[in-house]
Amino acid sequence: MNLLDTDPAVTAVELEHLCDFAVRFSDVQIVSTPVATRLIAVIGGGTVDGPRLRGRFLPGGGDWVTFGADGVARLDVRATIRTDDGEPVLVTSTGRAALPGEAVGRLMAGEVIAAHEMHARSAPLFETGAAGYAWLNSTVAVVVNQLSLEHVNYRVYSVL
Q: Family, per the entry (predicted)?
């Protein structure tokens, strides 16, 4: 018998809304290569709005997306949040977005692809030396994504 099958801590996963990210891009580069189409989006700024985490994204981070021939976008995000009380929080996130064929074309044409039009999930990790936000260092989070070439919106949930 596998003890994980009977342990209530692992038979159900609970989520709690942590915050929403609204990130805008200052520059987007799209490069087609023999391997994939690569999209590099430079963060121009943005907001973090939630019950325990509020602040803004500092310019200069980025979102490196690799679009495979399989229609899956592989996400790699690195950014810095400055909390409303001035503390820095680093964010790294990886994830996947499965876009139906027409959604890729719409995205490249500048349209917003809503969360219900694709399956896009990512997993941000937080890192900070700020004592008041030390709880973020052990937080595991999952995100439902909305994508565009100008901005992305994330609904962030912490895994309890």
A: Belongs to the UPF0311 family.
Half-sphere exposure of 97 (CA within 13 A, CB side): 30
How far is residue 118 from each of residues 39, 63, 79, 113, 151, measured CA to CA in Å?
18, 18, 24, 7, 16
Question: Residue 7 class from Cβ within 10 Å (0-12 exposed, 13-18 middle, 19+ buried)?
Answer: exposed
Q: Regarding beta strands 88-98 and 119-127, do their DSSP bridges make them parallel or antiparallel, or are they unpaired?
A: antiparallel
Task: Please write the tens of the pLDDT for every residue from 17-75.
Answer: 999 999 999 999 999 999 999 999 999 999 999 999 999 999 999 999 998 888 899 99
**Domains in the chain: boundaries:** 3-159
What CATH number does the domain located at 3-159 have?
A: 2.40.160.20
Q: Tokens 């692809």, residue?
A: 113
Distance between CA 134 and CA 91 in Å, rounded? 13
